[in-house]
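hi! just following up on the protien thing from before. the input was this:
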Amino acid sequence: MSSQLNPAKNFFILLLGAGLIGLAPLFVRWSELSPSWILFYRMFLALPFLALINIYFNKQQAFKLRNGKSLLFAMIAAFAFTTDMSAWHWSLQYTSIANSTIIVNTAPIYVVILGIFLFKESVSRRFLVSFVSTYVGVFGLAYFSSTNTDGALFGDALALMAALMYATYLLIISRLGRESSINIIFYTTLFTCLFSLIPALIESREFLPASKMEIINLFAMAILCQVGGQFFITFSMPKITASFGSVGLLMQPIVATIF
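and the predicted 3d structure came back as:
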């Protein structure tokens, strides 16, 4: 897939990906499985689709990385993503979707801060004003649409951990711009699938979907949120600055709050 798109087009691709991931809390709430098993199935069911997409677009270069270190970075990113998703899924069991959404989506703040200090990215005053204004609007939307703003402290703490890990994941993949985005999302999904088995087996030995609706729910989450959402984010993030991308990621809490 060509990456020669201008920043505006990449930004809109990021918006699309963030919007699809914003649907994930619904699928988590609808599932009867434990949080880590939900994460496992999201990754496991997405792998065949990602493999086919990889082979179709990359052909002979499918699954091949230009730099050997990229596989290590993909593994580290997957570990951060596993921690992020496990903590976030569990937070939804203890606090409201709105509360969890507000806290988890502070991740772009950490992306901007780390992008400035680690990668020397510059941001204008106009950008900072727009960034803060957008965040105030998103937080207000989530807060006033919540029917339970007194979420449990434990759930909120899990959501904060998820935010920190998600910021780590985004920063790592944003540095892998020389690699094929399809290869990167395949390997991060594969490693996340493997890593998620550990907490899943600890949580529960009941791992089989109990109904057709559960199977449909898991497939929908895998295709929309992982194959679609994470791929679009992985494709677009390396092609725009971390600070600019952090604004696009605000589509996640907007969609999650609306639905």
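The chain has one domain: 7-258.
Residues 7-258 form one domain.
cheers
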